Amino acid sequence: MSEETKALESMIGEEYKYGFTTDVEYEEFPKGINEDIIRELSARKEEPEWMLEFRLKSYRAWREMEEPDWFNATYKKPDFENLLYYSAPKKKPKLDSMDEVDPKIRETYEKLGIPLEEQKMLSGVAVDAVFDSVSVFTSFKEKLAEAGVIFCSISEAIREYPELVKKYIGSVVPARDNFYAALNSAVFSDGSFCFIPKNTKCPMELSTYFRINNMESGQFERTLIVAEEGASVSYLEGCTAPMYDENQLHAAVVELVALDDADIKYSTIQNWYSGDEEGKGGIYNFVTKRGICKGKNSKISWTQLETGSAVTLKYPSVILQGDNSIGEFYSVAVTTKKQQADTGTKMIHLGKNTRSTIISKGISAGQSNNSYRGEVKVGKNAKGAKNYSVCDSMLIGQECGAHTFPYISSENASSSVEHEATTSRVGEEQIFYLMQRGISEQDAISMIINGFVKDVLKELPLEFAVEANKLLDVKLEGSVG
Amino acid sequence: MLEIKNLHAKVEGEDIEILKGVNLKVNAGEIHAIMGPNGSGKSTLSKVVSGHPEYEVTDGEILFEGEDITEMDADERAHLGLFLAFQYPVEVPGITNKTLLREAYNTIARANDREELDPLEFEDYLVSKLDVIEMKDEFLNRSINTGFSGGEKKKNEIFQMAVLDPKLSFLDETDSGLDIDALKIVSDGVNKIANDEKAIVLITHYQRLLNYIKPDFVHVMMNGKIIKSGDIALAEELEANGYDQLQKELMLNGEAQ
Ligand SMILES: Nc1ncnc2c1ncn2[C@@H]1O[C@H](COP(=O)(O)OP(=O)(O)OP(=O)(O)O)[C@@H](O)[C@H]1O
Ligand SMILES: [Mg+2]
Predict the structure, then answer these.
(1) ipTM topping 0.90
(2) Is the pTM of this model over 0.90?
């Protein structure tokens, strides 16, 4: 390996800065999963009967299902009997003001750069903070309520808006959809709920910050976003976790529903702990994310910057049911050390003149493995459907891998599906070219990477683009060896 | 300005010696041309002089304005005023020409305790340089060389040279790939840039270029060495007789092995 490549690798493999743990007292259930645990969980959350039924049915379905292994990743399977399915900081469960949040937890979020006090926040962004299994705080609730927007934890939504939740939960990702979705449906602990009523433009960005703190707990959060006719919303999810030697499981389900003319933009900055040099520890990020463009002219757009986790299996998808609806997927996945990511999207075209765009950028360094898996399916009624996919991979060093698995099927002859893929190696020639013009090695590398991901990052909401750039820079920061 | 003494270089980590004792002296105000068959080491020489990490200098030294730069990083050499117009300019998607040039210009300015230009000042400066080679301003906002035609890439190299205003420039086959009109425009541009305080080393296969940019010296490189130096007459002789003939003559004279 040349000096350049080594320098690149050391820059890319910058140490994880969010790996600290917070020492809080926990209230938790015994390890393992069974119907009693689920009943207890549901009771603790004061859930209605139908919710418990939903959980139990999901649990029974899950018991019958096989853990999947079709993806391009190898890892030690989680031991489901040795996980904690409920772990909440011991403090008042319902919080009305910031002062009631455990100072230690508040501090945690400060350290992560997410102050929970409203006056300190980015203006125009409401935050829901989820700490292990529970939502600890949601800001700007009143201001949102004035506009008719509901933004709260899913637990609260189940209690306060049962009709809405009942109508939509499991409607996009049915419990039986897949192994991890079934598990999540049985034991989900918390997450966010957003409801944007008819003809309402959500007055601010909404965001949720997930933090796994407890070593033995799994995190199963559930997010549901509904945009009624003509409504629009932009939502961002951020995640970090401490460094532990053991793997932690994060199996979330996110469902998006867009009715006629509605527009949902969902952005993720995923920075879970990714394990150490030897591949020890780190999060298993097995997430089911799916949106449905139910109404005509609706639009769902997924943007993700994936930098963390030991293993990521994730395919944010869009079902394009309404005529003229639009689905978009913009992704940057960075893997370093021994990280493994198998990520991509599915665009299912059902309605007429539906359009989808997929732009995926993978950056692999170290001994990591980065796969793009994308499916574009055009149904027989999807007259005039169009898809455009670009899938670029960049390799840094000689030991990493990048793979592309496109699956395309069309039952309608008037549709058009276009797929382009490129693989490049971060070129020592590129670095030399920029250095010859006077630019330092470190700046050259960061310019090249930023150039590579630009088309995706420009899709992030402005408030978060800065954060994304910072995160990439942190990943790239370091001494030139 | 530049003095190369007995320069030996090989590919880093391998046993392939490419430069086998190059000697060359270039003074301010001079234009040199290096010619030589494919694979003789011309590009390698230009890369070794500008600090490409792929090559290791095993013997000899490179002096720039009296300072030994043999071990310097490429960016530091650029700060001193060394420029290489690449034979194969590299594409860097997502970064515009303008961004690169502003970064580069200001980094060089900083390194030399000169004043940096703010974005507006730089814009004016940049636009003023477009005329040098009749470059269209749309190229400023395009990603570096990305999707440029072969000739456009070559032109872009000379544009960058005009903007960064280096003391010594290596132009590696800038003429290859340029159409007849473009060759004339680019040559005129280079002539405008050249002055008594600067030096230029042209690497070329064609005497045609030397009709536009008149070299003071012509060198012939073969098998990792400069085997003959002379004036423009040497280029004409090569054009007429080819390298074979030259090599035979030299062998007869016992000057080459
Ligand atoms: N990185 C490398 N690894 C192996 N061989 C190399 C490397 N770089 C250069 N060479 C070899 O060194 C020799 C000189 O190459 P160079 O590019 O300097 O030639 P050149 O004189 O510029 O030729 P041309 O006129 O075709 O551009 C060639 O045989 C080339 O294959
Ligand atoms: Mg060459």
Answers:
(1) yes
(2) no
